[in-house]
Amino acid sequence: MRSKLVQIAFCIVIAVSAGGCTPPVGNIGGAGAGDSADNLWSVPNRVVYDINDLFIRESDLTVFISNRGIVESISVKDVEIFIIEDPDFNADEMQPVPLDEWYPFTSEGRKMVVIYYSNLSTHYSVQVGNPYGANGNGGGNGSGSGSGSGITIEWIQ
Predict the structure, then answer these.
(1) CATH code for the domain defined by 38-150
(2) Residue 6: CB partners within 8 Å, gap ≥ 6?
(3) What is the pLDDT of residues 1-33, one digit of tens each?
(4) pTM, full prediction
(5) I want to staple 65 with a disulfide (CB 3.0 to 4.6 A). Which of 27, 37, 78, 88 is the partner?
(6) 144 in helix, strand or coil?
(7) How do beta strands 48-50 and 54-55 pair?
(8) CA angle, corner 75, sides to 70 and 126, nearest 5?
(9) Closest CA to 56 of 23, 101, 22
(10) Per residue in 32-75, pLDDT tens?
(11) Helices (H), the chain
(12) Where are the beta strands (DSSP E) in 32-119?
C-alpha cells in the first residue's frame, strides 16, 4: 500500500513539474508597442469622399494588430499614414498624413491609404468623387460640362 502511495505522489509531482515548465498560452498584458506584432489590419470607416473633403485619421480609420494570436486595437496616433494620390501610375509618390493635421483630397479618382506600424504595412483604396464639377480649388468651371449636377454660373454685365 505504501509503495502505491509513493507512486501516486511521484506521478503528481511529475505532472505539476511538467505543467510549470510549459509556456503560457496568450499574453495577458496584450500586444503593446514594445512587442513585435504578427499582423496588421486597417478598417476604413469611410471610403467615399468628395473633392475638398478631409481625411481625418481619428475618425476615418481603425487599426488592429495581432500578437501571438491576440487581436488588439491600436491608436491611429501610433501608426504612420500615407496617401498615394494616383496609385495606378505613381505608386511610389506617397504623401504623409501628419499626426496633428488632416489631409485634403483635391482631385477625383481612386486613392490609396497606406498604413505602417512597426515592421508591418497594410493599405486600402478610397474613391474621391467630383459631384459638382469642381476643379479641386473650391469652384466649378462654370460650363456645366463636369460630372454631377451641371450647375452653371451666368455673369450679368
Answers:
(1) 2.60.40.3630
(2) none
(3) 666 665 666 656 566 555 555 444 444 444 444
(4) 0.63
(5) 37
(6) coil
(7) unpaired
(8) 100
(9) 101
(10) 444 578 899 999 999 999 999 999 999 999 999 998 889 999 99
(11) 2-21, 57-60
(12) 39-44, 48-50, 54-55, 61-67, 70-74, 80-84, 94-96, 103-104, 109-117
